[in-house]
Protein: Succinate dehydrogenase / fumarate reductase cytochrome b subunit
Organism: Belliella pelovolcani
Amino acid sequence: MSWVSKTLSSTLGQKLLMALTGLFLILFLVVHLAGNLQLLFPDGGESFNKYAATMASNPFIRVVSIGNFAFILLHVIYSIILTRRNKQSRPVAYAVSKASTNSVWASRNMGILGTIILIFLIVHLKGFYYEIKFGSVPMTSYEGVEFKDVYAIVANAYGNILYVAFYVLSMGFLAFHLSHGFASAFQTLGLNHVKYSPLIKKVGLGFSILIPALFALIPLVMFFQN
C-alpha cells in the first residue's frame, strides 16, 4: 500500500483532507461573494453580466470551477466517512448525555448543517449554474457587444419570496457550519498555539457572521428592489 493510500484510509489523513478542502471552500466563498456583490451595483446588471461573461470565458476559471466541485465532493465524502467512524467508535450511547457542556452546538451538529448546505447547493446550482449553461438565457448588449443577461435570471429568482427565505435560512446554517469549521480546520493542520488560537477563533467567528450575512443581503436587497 502506497503512502497515498495509507493517508487516504487513515483517520488523520481524512481529517487533513477535510481541513484542506474546507479551507479551499472558505477561500472560494470570499471570491464568489466578491463577484456576487456586483449584483447590487446600480447599473441594471451591466457589471454583473460582464463579470459573468469573463468568468465563463476564462480557461483558468473553468479549471478552478472543476476543482471546486471536486473539493465539495471530497469534503462531503470524508465528512460522511468520519461521522460513521465516530459513531462506530462509540456504539453504545452514554447513559447521561452532557454534550452541551463539552462542545458547542455547531460542533455536535456539523453533519446536519453540512447536509442542509449540500441541499442548498444542489438547488442553487440547478437554478443558476445549470440554467445558465444549458437553459434559455436572454441576451442583452452593452456598447454593441452582446452578453448573456445572467442578471435577469438571478433577479427573477430573487423575486420569489420562498426562494429568498430558503436562501437566507441556508446562510444561517452556513454561518453555524463555518463558526466551528474555520477554527477546526486550523487545529487539524496543527496550526494551534496558546498565543494564536484565540485570535484564529475570533477571526473565524467574524468570518462566519460577515460572509453569510453579506450573501443573505444580496437576495433581500434585490427582492425589495423588485
In short: The first strand starts at residue 139 and ends at 142. The mean pLDDT is 86. The chain has one domain: 3-225.
